[in-house]
Fold each of these.
Amino acid sequence: MKSNKVKRFFTLQRKYLCIPYIVFFILFIFAPILIIVFYAITNEVYDAATNTTHIVLSGQPFINFFTDPSKINVLFVSLFIATITTLICLLIGFPLAFFLADKQVNKNAVLVTLFVAPMWINFVLRTGATRDLLTWFGINGGTHPYLATIIGMVQNYLPFVILPLYTTMTKLDKSQIEAARDLGANPTQVFFKNIIPQAVPGIVSACLMTFMPTMSSYVISDVLSEGKITLFGNYIELEFTNKAWNDGSFMALIMLLFIAVAMFISQKFGKDDEKEAGTSW
Amino acid sequence: MVKKIFGQCYIWLILILMYLPVLVLIAFSFTEATNVGEWTGFSFNLFPRLFQSAEIMTALANTVIIAISSSLVATILGSLGAVGAYYSKKRMRNAIDLATQIPVVNAEIVVAFSLTVMFVFIGNIINTYMFSFWTLLIGHVCLSIPFVYTSVKPKLQQMDPSLYEAALDLGASPSQALGKVVVPEIMPGVLSGFLLSITLSLDDFIVTAFTRGSGLLSGDKKIETLSTLVQAKIKKGPIPPEMRALTTVLFVIVILAVIGVTIYRNQQAKKIRVRRAF
C-alpha cells in the first residue's frame, strides 16, 4: 500500500523532468514564430508630429510582397530550382539506393557511411570547393549561374535523398517482387508497378528533405551563382541585413506555410521513415 | 553478373563525383598557388601556415567551444524532455512529440530569422543590444534539441518497464532507480543525440550569422566561427590556400572516424554473434 503511494508520488515527479524542455520550446521555438506572425501583419508608422514610430496593424508587408515583381520572381525561381534539384537527386539517388541495398551488388555497409561522410566536412568549405572546381572547369556563376547552383545543390543534398531511400529499399518485400516476376511481369513492370509503390514513403521523405532546404538555402546559391540567383533564403537574409523586419517576417511566414504543407504531406505518406533516417547516422 | 558490375560502377562513379571537389582541394593543399588548378610545385608549407594563422585558429576554437557547449545544453534538456514526456499522460506526450517535429522540419533560415526578430523585439523593449555569445548558444540549442529528443525517445520505448519496478521492489529509491536503471538504458540514445548535435553545430552557418554577437575568442568583434570565416573569405575570391590545408586535415579526421566506427560496429556484431552462439 505504502509502496503504491510512493510510486504514484514519483510518477508525478518524473514527468516534471520535461518542464525545462517545454519552457525552452515556448520561449525559443514558439514565441519567435508568434513574433514573426505579429511582424508580418503589422507595420511601423512614423509620426512626424510627436517624432515617434507606432506599430499599427497593416497589410503592408502582404502588399509589398505581392506587388513587387522581384519578390514574386524569388518565389518562382526558388520553386524552379528546388523542383529541378529534387528531380535530379531522385534520378541519381533512387538507383543508387537500390544498388546499395542489393546484397548481390553491395555487401559493404561502409559504402553507405561513405556517402554520408562528406557531411562532416564543413558545409561552407565544401560549397567553396565545388565553386572553385567548377570555376577551374569554366563553369562559373558569372556565365552559368543556374547550372552552377543546381550542381552545388545536388552535390549537397544527395546524401539526404540516399539515406531515406536506402532505409526503404532494405525493407522492400522481396517475395512480392518475386511473385510479380513469377506471374509474368517484365523487369520494367516490376519496377514501376511493384518497387516504386513500395518505396513511396522513402520517396516522399527524400523529396521533402531536398525540396524545402533547397528553396530556403542561402550559402549555396549565394556562393555558386555569385549572387546572381536569389532564393527565399537569400531574400530573407537581405531583409535581415536591411533590418526590414516586417517584410522579412512576411517572407518567413510564407516559408512557414510551405513547411506546414510539407509536414502535412509527410504525416500522410512518410510514416516514420524520416525519423529512422535521422537516428541511423 | 552484368547487374553486379554495372551497379558497382554506378556506386563508385557517384561516390567519386561527390568527393571530387574535396579531393581536388586536398590535392592542391600540397602546392602554394593562390588558385585551384595552378600547380607551382610540391610543398608542405601550407600546413605550418594553417597552424600559424591566428584568424583560422580563433575561428576553429570558437567553433569547438560553441559546438560542445550548445550540444551539452541540448543533450541535457532534450534527454530530460524525452524522459519526462515518456512518463507523462498520452495527450501531453503526443503534444510534445508534435511540437518537437516543428523545428525538425522548419527551415534553418526561418529558425534563425524568427529568433533574431525576437531578440530585436525584446532588445527594443528593454533598450539593450541583445546579441552576444548567449543568443548564439540559444540558436544552436534550437537547432539540435529536437534531434536529441528523437534519438532518446526510441530507447525509452525499447526499455523494459518492469526493470524500473524491480529496482524499486529491491529497495532502490525512485531517484536511484532512475539514475541506475533508466539512465544506463537510454545512454546510447543520449550519446548519439550528443554527437548529432555536435555535427549540426559544427556545420551551421545561417543561425550563427544571424544570432551572433561579440565575445568568446573574437573579443570585441563579432564571434567568428569556421563557417562564417570561410563564407567571408569565399565571397571575395577563391578558397584561401591555408584553408585547402584545413580541408585535408578535416578529411583525414573524417576518414579516421569512419574507420573507427566501422571497427566498432564489426566488434559489436561479433559480440552479438558470440552471445547468440552460447
Amino acid sequence: MKKLLILGAGTAGTMVANKMHHMLDPDEWQITIVDQHETHYYQPGFLFIPFGIYGKNDVIKPKRNFIPAGVKMIVSEITMIEPEKNRVRVAKDNRYLGYDFLVIATGTHPRPAETPGMAAGEWHKSIFDFYTIEGATALARHLRGWQGGRLVLNIVDLPYKCPVAPLEFIFLADWFFQEKGLRDRIDLTLVTPLPGAFTKPRAAKLLGNILQDKNVNVVPDYYIERVDPEAKKIISYEEDEVPYDLLVTVPVNMGAEVIGKSGLGDEMNYVPVDKHNFLSKKFDNIFALGDAANLPTSKAGSVAHFAVEIFTENFLRYIDGLDMLQKFDGHANCYIESGFGKGILIDFNYDVEPLPGKFPLPGVGPFSLLQESEMNHWGKMMFRWMYWNLLLKGKELPIAAQMTMAGKWQ
Amino acid sequence: MSTKEIAGAVVNVDEEGFLTDPAQWTEAIAEAMAAELGLTLTEDHWKVVDFTRQDYQQTGEAPGLRRITKVGGVPTKQLYKLFPKGPAKKIARIAGLGKPTGCI
C-alpha cells in the first residue's frame, strides 16, 4: 500500500482528501488526514459575525462530515515533520505516521503576540481581531453596546489572509453604524502598510474612491511597531501615533509552528514551493497547498480551491513518473462585500490585475467585475452553500481553475 | 520599458526608475541610486543591501522588512533610521531588485 498523508483538514486539505479519495485506487492507496481540531469553520463568514449578520452556528460544522469514509482521520496535534525519514510524529499516542507523499495544508494564523502591547490586557476588550471565532464573537458583543468614537482598523503586515476582508469590514462598519444611527459619532480610519486601499492600480483606485465616498480616513504606508493599550494608541517604527477608542487589528499572519521547527518553512513558517505546481523546493515527495505555501498570491480560499484543482491533475501524473503538465497561474476570485446589500467581484492572477467587465458563471451569472452590484452581494451570500455542499466535497464548480480573459475589459 | 543612464551605465528601468533587470546592477549604481534618494551608503547600509541581494538570489523574491529583520538580523527600527520614509521601497531600489509588489 502507498501512503498519502495530508496535514490539515481546512479548506485545502479537505478538498485534497475528497479529490484523492475519488481518484486514487483504494486497493493501492491509503489516505490519512490529520488535524488538531474537530470543527471546520467557514472562515469567510467571520466577517459577518461582528455585525450580527451571522452567528457562531452559521459558520461551524464538524470536520468529519466532510472527510469521506475511506479516508482515515486522526484528530491530533502534529508534533514534528521528519522529511528525511518520510514520517510525521503526532501528539496522540505519540506515534509516527509514515508516508510516500505528504501534502502540507496547515494554513496561516494570526499572531497578535508578535506586536508588543497587542495581546496584553486589552485584548478582546478594546483591541479585537475578526479572523478567529473568539475575536469575531467578542467584537460582536462589544459593538452591540458601543456608543461611538474612533474606530481604527490596522493591518500589521503582509501577507495576511483574505486581503480584501479589512476593506469589507470597513464598508460593513459604515453601513452598520448608519443603520444604528451612530455614524456621525464614529470616526472610521484604515491604517495600512500598503500605499493605498489595495496593491493593484485599478482596484486600488475604485476601492479608494469608495472609501472616500463613505468618509473613511486612510493612513497609508504605515508600519506598526507597537500598541500602547493604556494610552489607546498605535505607534509606528517612525514614531507616528494614531489614537483609537476601538482598535480592530489584522495581526501578523504566520504559518504553523510545526513547519518552522521541522525546518520546512521560511521566516514566516510558509513552505517554499514551485509557484506553478506546489512541489516543495527541498523534497520531491512533499507538496504544500493553500495558505501554508509561500505562493506570491492572495492567501484565500479561492486560491486554495483553484490550486487543488491543478494539483489533482498533476499529482495523478506525478505518481506515475510523468511530468506535471498543469501550471497554476495564481488565480484568485473574491467577492468584496461593500455594504447596503451590494458587492464587488474581482478576478485576477499572478500577471493580470483585477480588471473591469463581466464575469461569466453558467446558470447564474454574469456578475459585474470591479463594480458594485446587488447581484455580487447575492453571489457572496450564496457562496456559503456552495462551500459546504460542493467545494469542500471536491465536486465540480462551474468556474475554471485558470483565469480567463472572457468578459474582461483591457 | 525605458532606459536610464546612471553611474556611467545604461540600464533598463520601469516608469518609477526601478531597475527591471537585477543582473545590470553594480555597486556604483547602488551608490548613485542612493544619492538620488539623498542617502550616502555607509557600512550599515551595505549590510542591508548585500543581504537583500543575496536573499533575492536564493529565493527569487525581494525580501520584506520582516524577513530582513528576522533573517538578515537588522532591527526594523534601524532599517527606518538607515532608509527613512519607506525603507522597503528604498532598499529594493538601491539593491536593483524592482519595485516590491506586496502579495495581494
Amino acid sequence: MSTAKVDRRVAHSHHFDSMEQEHESGKQGVWLFMATEIMMFGGLFVGYFIYRMKYPEAWVEGGSLLSWKLGALNTLVLLFSSFTMAQAVTETMKGENKKALNLVMITTLCAFAFMVVKYFEYSGKIHHGLFPGLDIWDPSAVQNEGTRLFLLFYFLMTGLHGFHILVGVGLMFWLMKRLKNDEFSPKYYTAVEGVGLYWHIVDIIWIYLFPLMYLI
Amino acid sequence: MAHIVPVKTNAMTLGTLIVLTVITVYTAKYVDLGQFNLTLAMFIATCKALTVFLWFMHLKYDGNQNRAIIFSTLGFLALFIGFSALDLFTR
C-alpha cells in the first residue's frame, strides 16, 4: 500500500475532507452498485414475465416440479442471515468488533446452509433429467415443451443469485479477518455496512424469486 | 448522521419479514384468486423489499441522495416492466 498509511479507525484518507465524507462516499458507491444489480436482475425478471405469458401452463408445471417447502426454508434462512448482518453493522457502529465477528460468522453459516439446500435441489433436478442443457435434458420428463424454458429461467436466475451468495461468503471472510484484527471503530465501519447492503440486496432478489419460481 | 439501529428494531424487521413470508405462502397455496394470485404475491414481495430497504439497509435514516439512487432505479425498472407489459397486452 501507500507509504504514509493512515489508521482508518481514527483518521480519513488524505483525498477526503472528513471521516464522515469518506464514509458517505464509499457507501454511495455501494448504493450505485446496488442500482446496477437491480437492473441486471430486472432484465431477467422481464424475460421471465414475457415467457410466463407465452407459456402459462408450462410455468404451472415448472413450479410444481420445485419443492416450495425447500424454497420457504431457504427464504427463512436468508431473512435470518439479513437480520444477523444488520445486527453486525449495529455492533460495529457501537465498537463491539467481537460481537460483530460472531454475527458475521452466523451470517456466513446461513449462506452455507442456503447453498447446501440449493445443492440438493439442483442435484435432484439434474438426476431427473430436468436440467435444460449439457445433454442432460430428458424431454419425456415433462408434459409441456415450454417447461424447459421455465427451468432455463430457474437455473439462470437462481444460479446467478447463488453466485451472488458465494461472492457474499467471500466478502464475509474478508470482514471476519478485519473484525478479528479490530480494524473497525464507531467512526469507521464502511466495509461492514457496504457488505451489509450487498447482502440485503441479494436477500431482496430472493424475496421475488421465491414466489415467482416456487409458488405461482 | 450515523444512526445506530437498536437490536429491537432489527428483530421487529425480521419478525415482519417472516410474517409476510407466511402470508405469501398461505395466499399462494391455499387461497385461489386466479390471475390475481400473481399480483398479490408481487405486492407482498414489494412490501418485504421496502421493509428491507428502509430498515435493514437504513434508507429510513439515510440521506436523500441514496434514496434518489435506489428509487430512480426502481422507477426505471417499473418503466421497463410497464412498457413490456403494454407491448405484450396489446398485441
